[in-house]
Fold this protein.
Amino acid sequence: KAPQAAAEIIDALRPTTDWNPKTIHTLIRRLVQKNVIAAKEGVTPYTYCTLLSEAECTLQKTRSFIDKIYNGSFNLMVARFVKEENLSSEEIAELKKILNGK
């Protein structure tokens, strides 16, 4: 829900986390620095709104993970998981279907 003030964000997170308000303020500041959310300035208190959808955030985190752990090689990541995991016939068929659809 946007826009929201920091106090509203804290209240929304309170039922699902035991973080203290200072920790949540730190999270908000970092999300602003990473351009995930934006602070509407000139209004007191600041209100915040999202700049990226959840899907966009997930994609960025996935790309960052592949870059850091697999030097940007998606092929290396998939090969590692296929070799080291016990995939069922259904999972293999689903991977083939996804790859053939590209």
Summary: The radius of gyration is 19 Å.
